[in-house]
Amino acid sequence: MYPASFRQLQALVLVARHESVARAADALHVTQPAISLQIRTLEENAGMALTRKVGRNIQLTAAGEVMVAFSERILRLWEQAGDELAALQGVTSGTLRIGAVTTAEHLLPPMLVPFTLERPDVRLKLQVGNRAEIVQMLARHEIELAIMGTPPRELRTNAAKFARHPMAFVASPSHPLMKKKKLTLNDVLGANLLVRERGSGTRTAVERLLREAGHPLEFGSEVSSNEAIKRMVAAGLGVGFLSVHACGLEFEAGLLAVLPTPAQPVEADWHIMHLTDQPIPKVAAAFQDFVIEHGQELVRRELEGYYKLLGRQRKRVAAAS
């Protein structure tokens, strides 16, 4: 087999990932004919077909699946080699590939900004998705680090806690429950409680809270987006259970408020993790150390306004009871 270029390998990996020549071309910022030429040349070098068209999508042949697996490893090793060479010169560089569950995207900027400002040679590739998507990206080695609440059981990971994760029942400031003096979980459950899909961190937390309090797991609606829940709750279509990190702007703008229940907030841990059997680049290791050392303080600063609000609400609840 004749040698292949990195561009050919990259084209094949992206076509496999997107199942589309057009989307692969967009990702590489080239034309569709350019991608098609790279794939065709690679197939000629391999001596067999690597892809096939099924309807509007492109799928891999058995040979294509083998080639993609090796292509991903080759491209990853080449980038790691560059990082190692830069490290010999005392430079922290390379691409930081990190994935975060949707809720965590609001807490990442306070950590990424100071880290990258001190390391201008670091490039960033941030992937945001639901829990299942981030777990799959980690398993496929598309990211080196993942940030989520509970480490996945289906993968062997090296996970470290770095900050507390507050979650709370929220509602529109004009919602009738905001004026109720002694608010209970029964009141919340009867007000069309909107929650995330099964498997999400906030869904797991609210289920645990209700189970421990002896309540049935009956919700008003299941919504797969924090943004959708916030908009529905702000419009008065129910109450929500969300991460405080995801509601900072809405709290400041007066669109949402924390319901004055005694159990607020519900807290869990944020974890940063990587695969146990997969060495990570030095830039990823440096960011992991940075998050573990500074994450809690940076998160606390971001949530100062929320905790002041919570303190005032607790005083009102205590005075009314």
Task: Tell me about this structure.
With 321 residues, the protein is α/β, with parallel strands linked by helices. The chain is 47% helix and 20% strand. It has 12 helices and 11 strands. The chain has helices spanning 6-18, 21-28, 32-46, 62-88, 109-117, 131-139, 185-189, 201-212, 226-234, 248-253, 282-302, 304-320; strands spanning 51-54, 57-60, 94-101, 122-129, 145-148, 157-171, 193-195, 221-222, 239-243, 257-258, 266-275. Strands 3, 4, 5, 6, 7, 8, 9, 10 and 11 form a 9-stranded mixed sheet that branches. It has a two-stranded antiparallel ribbon with strand order 1-2. A hairpin with a 2-residue loop joins strand 1 and strand 2. Helix 1 packs across helix 3 (32-46), helix 2 (21-28) packs across helix 3 and helix 5 (109-117) crosses helix 11. The longest helix has 27 residues, at 62-88. The termini are far apart.
Oligomer: single chain
Order of helices and strands: HHHEEHEHEHEEHEHEHEHEEHH
Overall morphology: elongated
Mean pLDDT: 86
Q: Report the biggest beta sheet as strand number plus sense, adding barrel if it closes.
A: 9 strands, mixed
What percentage of the residues does DSSP assign to strands (E)? 15-25%
- Helical stretch tally: 12
E-strand count: 11
Structural class category: alpha/beta
Helix content: 40-55%
Rg: 24 Å
Measure the end-to-end span: 78 Å
pLDDT under 50 segments (min length 5)? none
Lay out the secondary structure.
Blueprint: H1 6-18, H2 21-28, H3 32-46, E1 51-54, E2 57-60, H4 62-88, E3 94-101, H5 109-117, E4 122-129, H6 131-139, E5 145-148, E6 157-171, H7 185-189, E7 193-195, H8 201-212, E8 221-222, H9 226-234, E9 239-243, H10 248-253, E10 257-258, E11 266-275, H11 282-302, H12 304-320
Parallel strand pairs: 3-4, 3-5, 7-8, 7-9
Antiparallel strand pairs: 1-2, 5-11, 6-9, 6-10, 6-11
